[in-house]
Write a structure and sequence with these properties.
Elements (H helix, E strand, L loop, with lengths): L5 H33 L4 H16 L2 H22 L10 H26 L3 H9 L4 H31 L11 H12 L2 H30 L8
Helix pairs in contact: 1-2, 1-4, 1-7, 2-4, 3-4, 4-6, 5-6, 6-8, 7-8
Length: 228
């Protein structure tokens, strides 16, 4: 099947999933920090968060990938030279790809989480404090469960886009699914076949993700009345 390139394509798929999940973990952390910063009462903190989301969302993913990968290597080697290191530091494409995609989607999740937090009425947090809860208890018992419910639709959309955006890591030499499909297409001269196969695999991943996250949304919305 696929002229013997199926194992390579499946191996590339595992790499793609690994990149996507690792990037998501970074993006969630940056998104939570960014959302808190945007809701901060300190103007400087809000300004930094605003600059982060504005710049990242306004620059194409591919441009950021190339800037961070090649620019990062230049910066790391320049810094190493200052400390007397004479060798060349080569940044691993996997690390660069994960860091870049996580950095990019951290900006998008910042807005998702910020919107989810804003959707929670402040009176609920005030009631929790008045009831004698600590701020940590209010966040864990009142804010977090509702934030998850409000954030899931936007989170789902960002995850689907993130999965598809992993295709750009092939340009920095990472052997992901698109890289494997490209190698197979070049060897067999059947690009349509292998890029179609890659498209089907991406569609399968995103479809399963939608089913899983849809089930999660229904689970956290149990007992809530949907608006007409």
């Amino acid at each position: 099947m696929l002229h013997g390139f199926l194992p390579a394509l499946l191996e590339g798929t595992l790499t793609t999933l690994s990149v996507a999940l690792a990037s998501l973990a970074i993006a969630v952390v940056l998104g939570l920090v960014g959302a808190a910063a945007k809701l901060s009462r300190i103007p400087f903190v809000r300004g930094v968060a605003m600059a982060y989301t504005t710049i990242v969302r306004g620059v194409p993913d591919l441009v950021l990938m190339l800037l961070i990968f090649f620019g990062g290597q230049i910066a790391v080697n320049a810094l190493a030279a200052k400390f007397g290191f004479e060798g060349y530091v080569d940044i691993d494409p996997y690390v660069a790809g994960v860091a870049t995609i996580g950095f990019i989607f951290g900006a998008y999740l910042t807005e998702t989480f910020r919107g989810a937090l804003i959707a929670i009425h402040a009176g609920q947090r005030e009631a929790g404090l008045a009831f004698g809860m600590s701020r940590a208890q209010v966040f864990r018992r009142i804010t977090l469960p509702q934030m998850i419910r409000f954030a899931i639709p936007g989170f789902t959309n960002n995850w689907l886009v993130l999965v598809k955006s992993t295709a750009i890591v092939s340009v920095i030499g990472l052997t992901d699914m698109m890289h494997s499909a490209g190698m197979a297409a070049g060897a067999t001269r059947e690009p349509f076949t292998f890029y179609l196969a890659a498209g089907v695999i991406y569609l399968a991943i995103t479809s399963l993700s939608m089913l899983g996250l849809g089930a999660l949304e229904r689970s956290v919305s149990v007992g809530l009345r949907r608006a007409a």
